[in-house]
């Protein structure tokens, strides 16, 4: 807290300085005698010092009323080193020097000093006067501007400002690098020199938005360099406003996106190539599996004929084994064919009315004939459930779910089926007590060729069954899903509309 100023209101001292006028000055002022003893200071000086030193008191600090002093670089300045002390010592003026003052409360201010020695009529040094003012905020602003300028200058992006007539007002190093014009060549010219003729309308559109005070963000376009090269750039343009809030120009940040555009293009080309290769592969799988089907059917027919002809049991056994393998191969080939049909969007359905329970029973029977390890139990399965669907395709789904339930529960002995008739739907579940599926894998289960990692090597498969089954159910406007717990078992569900 600064104490009230102790001076008399009007005082005319020896040097002719009107102390009342000095009090009214918007700047700080103080005077010393030839020995540096403070003889006068005004209110502004007391404010800046944060204290009121006693006048004409040899016990006070000499030369300056400030508590502590520092050089602009922050090092301590003794009172004897201050500009006032030097002015008295060397009988000369000190103008425009910066001194850092510290107040008793520890706060600091930067002052710009202007000192003149005072000489008496006989030319003898009688003291000095110092008019100084607080430039702390100005210095902070200057520092801030310097920092901003160095950010702008060191930016790889072009940072340009222009007025509302599109005349370039500033041009950084990034702009020089991207567009090839030096600052001298660019400032004062119209920004349209950077715009290809067929895109000049863009400038009008951008200016329109800037006038409305809007920002234009990440606008990807083409601009011209000094040597006429067209480069892809991303523009972000913001309005520049004066202190009344009026738009007076725009600042532009332009980023050269040649490299990222090239990479994007390359990625797209690669994706297209991959898609093309993928469709070739699907086409190949489709053709190959189709071509394999006919000879397999013929082999199967001739093997069945041969089986009838053969009398010896061992020979019959050989043919039975061969027939089993042919069946496996046939299933595999038709699954491959189905996958390629799904990929090509050509999985067709033949809808007919039939009893779902009958179909289920047939499916269970077919599986049970070849698998004696597990008992397939149909709990509370309703009878006479008339449904309109593709019988053959639904059988395929049931066979797949039952085969999997047995295949993936080698240590269990049963599989439980539940069928619930809902108002317009039928809900079927197939529950096993096998290895289950890790929860992290559940969302990928119905993807093409997906198999859970780390399956025992004797459990073979190609990851097509669930993909096809899910597509079949979807083709009936139904839904398929799974609930599973690792090492406990799984329940596969599907819900189908009855008609
Ligand atoms: P495949 O059985 O020929 O591998 P699927 O498409 O029928 O192909 O099944 C995909 C994967 O889902 C299987 O490889 C297996 O990891 C997992 N899976 C399917 N059914 C079950 C089940 N009942 N229990 C545990 N895992 C299963």
Write out key terms for the chains shown.
499 residues, five-stranded antiparallel sheet, Beta-Lactamase, 19 strands, binds adenosine-5'-diphosphate, Helix Hairpins, seven-stranded antiparallel sheet, disordered N terminus, single chain, elongated, 4 domains, alpha+beta
Description:
The protein has helices at 19-24, 43-49, 83-90, 136-154, 173-179, 183-186, 200-211, 258-309, 313-343, 356-370, 391-407, 465-475; strands spanning 28-33, 38-41, 68-70, 76-77, 94-102, 108-119, 125-134, 158-163, 168-171, 216-224, 230-241, 247-256, 352-355, 375-379, 386-389, 414-421, 425-431, 479-485, 489-497. The chain starts with 18 loop residues before the first helix and ends with a strand. With 499 residues, it is an alpha+beta fold. Strands 2-1-7-6-5-3-4 form a seven-stranded antiparallel beta sheet, with helices on both faces. The chain has a five-stranded antiparallel beta sheet with strand order 9-8-12-11-10, sandwiched between helices. A five-stranded mixed beta sheet has the order 14-16-17-19-18. Bound molecules: adenosine-5'-diphosphate. Adenosine-5'-diphosphate binds next to helix 11 and helix 12.
């Amino acid at each position: 807290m600064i104490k009230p100023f102790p001076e008399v209101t009007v005082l005319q001292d020896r040097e002719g300085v009107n102390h009342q006028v000095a009090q009214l000055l918007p700047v700080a002022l103080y005077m010393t005698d030839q020995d540096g003893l403070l003889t006068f200071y005004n209110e502004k000086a007391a404010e800046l010092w944060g204290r009121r030193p006693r006048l004409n008191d040899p016990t006070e600090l000499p030369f300056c009323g400030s508590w502590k002093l520092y050089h602009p670089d922050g090092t301590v300045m003794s009172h004897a080193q201050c500009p006032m002390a030097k002015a008295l010592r060397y009988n000369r003026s000190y103008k425009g020097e910066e001194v850092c003052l510290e107040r008793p409360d520890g706060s600091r201010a930067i002052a710009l000093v202007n000192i003149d020695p005072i000489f008496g009529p006989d030319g003898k040094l009688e003291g000095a006067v110092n008019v100084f003012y607080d430039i702390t905020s100005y210095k902070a602003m200057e520092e801030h501007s310097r920092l901003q300028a160095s950010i702008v200058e060191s930016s790889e992006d072009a940072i340009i400002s222009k007025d509302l007539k599109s005349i370039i007002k500033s041009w950084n190093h990034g702009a020089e690098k991207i567009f090839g014009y030096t600052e001298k060549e660019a400032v004062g010219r119209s920004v349209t020199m950077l715009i290809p003729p067929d895109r000049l309308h863009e400038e009008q559109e951008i200016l329109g938005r800037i006038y409305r005070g809007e920002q234009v963000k990440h606008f990807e376009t083409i601009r011209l360099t000094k040597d006429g090269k067209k480069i892809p750039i991303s523009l972000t343009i913001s309005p520049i406003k004066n202190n009344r809030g009026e738009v007076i120009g725009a600042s532009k940040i332009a980023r050269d996106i040649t490299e990222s555009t090239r990479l994007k293009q390359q990625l797209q080309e690669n994706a297209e190539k991959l898609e093309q290769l993928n469709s070739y592969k699907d086409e190949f799988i489709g053709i190959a599996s189709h071509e394999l089907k006919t000879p397999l059917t013929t082999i199967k027919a001739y093997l069945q004929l041969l089986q009838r002809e053969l009398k010896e049991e061992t020979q019959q056994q050989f043919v039975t084994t061969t027939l089993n393998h042919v069946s496996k191969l046939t299933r595999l080939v038709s699954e491959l064919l189905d996958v390629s049909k799904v990929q090509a969007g050509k999985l067709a359905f033949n809808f007919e009315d039939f009893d779902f329970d009958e179909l289920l029973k047939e499916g269970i029977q077919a599986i049970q004939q070849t698998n004696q390890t597990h008992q397939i139990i149909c709990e509370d399965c309703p009878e006479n459930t008339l449904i309109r669907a593709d019988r053959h395709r639904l059988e395929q789904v049931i066979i797949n779910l039952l085969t999997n339930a047995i295949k993936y529960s080698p240590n269990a002995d049963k599989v439980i089926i539940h069928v619930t008739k809902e108002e317009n739907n039928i809900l079927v579940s197939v529950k096993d007590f096998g290895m289950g599926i890790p929860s992290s894998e559940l969302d990928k289960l119905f993807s093409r060729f997906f198999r859970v990692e780390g399956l025992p090597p004797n459990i073979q498969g190609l990851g097509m069954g669930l993909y096809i089954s899910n597509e079949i159910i979807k083709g009936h406007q139904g839904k398929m899903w799974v609930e599973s717990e690792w090492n406990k078992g799984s329940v596969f569900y599907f819900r189908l509309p009855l008609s």
